[in-house]
Amino acid sequence: MKKSVMLTAALGLVLALGGPWTVVRAGLVKDGIGAQDPGKEETDAYGAWYNAYTAKDLAKEIELGKAFLEKFASSKNAAYVKADVARARGLLFNQAMQAKNTTEMMRLGNDALAEDANNLDYLWLLTLALRNNELYANPVNTSHSNELADYAQRTIKLIQDGKIPSVSDKNTWKKDVTLGYLYGTLAVNEERKNSKDKALEYYEKAASLDPSYPAFFLAMGSLHQGKYVVAAQKFGAFSEADRSATDPKPEVKAALNEVNNAADAVINNWARFLGLTATGDKYPKATRDQVEKALTDLYKFRHNDSVEGLQKLIEQNGPGSTPTPAPANHPGNPPNEF
User: Fold this and answer.
1) 207-251: pLDDT as tens digits
2) What are the helix (H) ranges across 99-195?
3) Which site from 161, 164, 190, 270 is most exposed, i.e. has the minimal number of CB atoms within 10 Å?
């Protein structure tokens, strides 16, 4: 969905936001003035906008059109001017989108959202643009992370309410997959800010909506692996006598449980990732090999140095299946080494 959605959106916006063009043309008269005889100030303001319109000066059309609407909202020509402002803004937005100029996209998009805070097309496309042009830029750009979170959350709310972006292909639209993508975007946004717990929360939501998308489980496994490393270091700081005690102190037992829980979370997510990517070539073999090695080591740690059951767990997490939790070892089993 990821690349096709962006392509569909990029191609569709001209059509969706360029629609008012015929409405505007139908409402204009030859000399650029409405059929009734307005006052001179209104006539001059309308004429200035009309000159920009005939000159195809999009920026001026927006500027003068908005100025006209601000003063003459009840004018007979207001509907035509308003439609043209939307059309011109949409065309400029498309140009900025093609140029990957997110700053200009945000300026134009925010202008449209000031008029209609629930304009799903702009919210959706701004979310896509900031994700693709900034979160995945090299180097990563997080200067608009707050704006991205705002756009994405507002988009989620509207889609949850049953709305669909008009720039999307209705024949391939899948509500839950799209919501999963948006929650995944929020997760990446938080991860880039090093807000790992929040990122994990969003990834879990994304995976619950789209449990067939491997990247969510790869990312969650990596985040849980970070928690495992921290927990292992905490447990390893206790003395050998404390770690190997038959009846460990409560704080030692709690630290060990943290290690085991984090390890199980990694196992669950990476087994799912390997199951979903067992066929096809969505991920490089080197990535799968690296994950498989780390998963095997953790599984052996949690199952008395045995890999029995691991392959079955991976197979149970293949395409079309529901994520299957890994069987946890007894929480009292100490780690092998730190």
Assistant:
1) 999 999 999 999 999 999 999 999 999 999 999 999 999 999 999
2) 102-115, 120-130, 145-160, 175-192
3) 161
